[in-house]
Amino acid sequence: MNDLVEVRPGVYRDSVTLMRVSRAITDLPGVTVAVVAMATELNTALARDLGFAVPPATPGDLLVAVRAASPAVLEGAAAELGRQLAARAQASGTGDVAPPRTTRSAARGFEATLALVSVPGEHAFAEALDAVEAGLSVMIFSDNVPVEQEILLKDLAAARGVLVMGPDCGTAVVGGAGLGFANVLRPGPVGVVAASGTGAQQVTSLLDLAGVGVSHVLGVGGRDLSAEVGGRSAVQALRALDEDPATELIVLVSKPPAPEVARAVRDLDLATPVVAALLGPGQDDLTTAAEKVLRALGRDVPEWPSWPAPPAPPAPPARQDAADEAAPRGPLRGLYAGGTLCAEAALVAGDGEFTDFGDDSYTRGRAHPMIDPALRLDALRGVASGVVLMDVVLGHGADPDPSSSLAPAVREAVARGVDVVVAVVGTDGDPQGLRAQAARLNEAGAAVFTSNAAAARHARLLAGG
Amino acid sequence: MTLSMLYGEPRVITVGAQVLGEALDLQAVPRCEVDWRPPLPGTAAALARVLADPRRESANATAVGRMLAARPMLTGVRPAHAVLGLRAGEFLHAGPPITWERASGPMRGALAGAMLFEGLAGTPEEAERRLASGAGIGLDSCHHHRTVGPMAGVVSPSMWMLEVTDAEHGGTAYCSLNEGLGKVLRYGAYGPEVIERLRWMGEVLGPVLAAALERCGPLDLRTLIAQALQMGDELHNRNRAATSLLVREIAPAIVEAAPDHAAEVLRFINGNDHFFLNAGMAAAKVSADAARDVPGSSLVVAMARNGTDFGIQVSGLGDRWFTGPAGVPDGLYLGGYGPDDANADIGDSTITETTGLGGFAMAAAPAIVRFVGGEVSDAVAATTTMYEITMAEHPAYQIPGLGFRGTPAGIDVALVARTGSLPVVNTGIAGRIAGTGQVGAGLVRPPAEAFTAALDALAGG
After folding, report:
1. Which chain B residues touch A143 with a CB distance below 8 Å?
2. Residues B420, A10: C-beta atoms closer than 8 Å
3. Are A184 and A178 in contact (CB under 8 A)?
4. For residue range A249-282, what is the model confidence (pLDDT) as tens digits?
5. Based on the domain organization, do B202 and B232 belong to the same domain?
6. Are residues B161 and B266 in the same domain?
7. What are the Cα distances from residue B104, in Å, to A354, B101, B131, B194, B421?
8. ipTM of the complex, rounded to two decimals
9. pLDDT in tens, A100-132
10. CA dist list (Å): B362 to A22, B378, B394
11. A103-296 is classed in which CATH architecture?
12. B29: which chain A residues are within 8 Å (Cβ-Cβ)?
């Protein structure tokens, strides 16, 4: 075996960056496996399980473990690794001036309007607090932040006249800048307050497809409208958008809030009309909410783009009988990256087994499924029959080309006789290209929808519900 | 409410996943990326508690504000028995409290020398025997008596002390008179020439300086330090400009007060580039003491070494010491000495770094960067790194080469834990065998556990 095992003390890169570096090294011809990761217990155990002799290390050290077919390949891999890490280092620190080490220090030297925090959840509080103390609004993309820290941050922010978006805030658009997972949206009259990232992305993407843009999208974090947090940020965000002359109508996207929070929001007495998109049993789905917004603005409701599945290829002989029957296909499996999209699909489809791969329990120690498709692809490969319903969320921050890994897996699933239905949440302005992504998934055999609710209804129909 | 971020061009600080920062680059949104790394291992929970303390922000503003507002004035020179109440057999020493058993070579040597100087022993061996037995001997930390001492920092009753008063807050601090370089008591030497020099300092230097100061009135050390920084001193390992400025201020009064001794006194001061160090240390001590005892504050108010332990004290934690093993400095050595001859880090002179001087002001002193190992860019890097762990920039102490930016001042225990950056300390190096004296000078880093222990205490309180 040609192994390279190295511990580099004090070298830090974030997990997404390291995952990309690992992938680049693994993709080199002749490289069997590459682990480039912070030396956490989890990662060192992983490397040891792969048979690498890992020396003692701390989570603050960078672990490099590469196995290759020959010493020459290993040498090449080491050189490529050096290039990859150097490129990343250069991107972060240019010139002679040492880059700031904390948000507090950055705020002293750079005139900012807000901060975007995406460090691991247990460390997010310090950076967010720095921002608020420096008089900056902050978006906390990180999840796994304790609720008492959230409340403390939001109270302090209210006192300082700034907004805390998050924690676990996946998307925001402020002054035209897309933060986190953000679709490219045209400017327009709709202001959004969202306790749900992918919910807001669905509503705003549909509005964009209908030609209606946004003023700002202010995420508040999934827990904000809970009884515990009491809508602290939602109330602030609603008031702020009410004051914004560019905002003519406000959409509030959330799961149904706790009753006392709902009351507090209702009692705000805003001058700007508010359309509530409160996803829950007996409530409108997100597409219906988007349509309500269009009507409130006096705009036409278009037909939401969709691409029906091409005729199925001849099924394998063993399944011929079943395929010929018009009987229900069931069971229905939902494999989702977006939490709200997953909940919406479950509500619309009724029966089925739905998994939200963006949930905290799947993202501890790994990147969000909108960046790292591996877990979800594995799940899709494990489906032998029935109907699979999935989402693909486009925009900044998300996988730059999701169909490149998903389309082959869809093609294999369809060949196994599985019906695949995909909801693509995105706009024509998104860097991945909405229509190109949809077309490739469609060519692979999936039925593709821009409305998640429509996709779920179609899947229910296929499953015979 | 009006939310300012909704109006005007967005400018974003990003900290964390690089992919989210790159997404902003693609949108041409101006941004500043934080070079974030995880905090010191095992500190996450304590950090969260300390940062959540509602007193912290204003407590730190109060504490560091007091440190920076202090106006240290050199007001007098007096014997230690008079101002500190030291009696025969009582000695103060540098760093956190230490026993004879745990004391290093230079600390033992300096204590033995002080015994000889005070006439409590006839030979070094007798002095060591008596110190080891402990009978009639009292040892305590200088810091417990508003005092600081360089290197071993040994103060005995007959030594004369510089007295520095804080004109802003009214505090007082003391430091002994500097003996010069080479074989000197503070580096653990106790030969006849060492004792002879101490006698002359007690009989001539101290009284002459006292009389001169009475004539010319208090000296404004804040202004003098500010000027010296602009003349290439960092006030710990380089005090040449400050010493010159001091001589210029006080020379006429020395001549008038003691015409018979003026020449020898001025020659002595002039022959020792570090004469000002002790005045600067007392100035730093009185400034740091002004910041003590603010509940909830994570400001470091003392860093000190006794040759065995490196200890810190924190404003919100009273007089408790948080210690770790003192490291061996990395530096240049005199003559035939080398790293094997070096004692572990020693002295109260880290009070200069505590208030934003010394290693923290390294960028002001390009002349000595080679002496402490490196290029001018290393000196600039040392200072700029310290801005990451300090609460403020000193309003009076400025660095011309950094565009007259104030020195990084006021170490925050929480920021040390968050960044993992430990304070940069410039220091002299003492020989580890008692009686050797100075063997070199260089740079040293404090032990991280002193800071993490203080953080834990802040979290628990």
Report:
1. none
2. yes
3. yes
4. 999 999 888 888 988 888 898 999 999 998 888 8
5. yes
6. yes
7. 68, 9, 13, 19, 27
8. 0.92
9. 999 999 999 899 999 999 999 999 999 999 999
10. 40, 9, 14
11. 3-Layer(aba) Sandwich (3.40)
12. 177
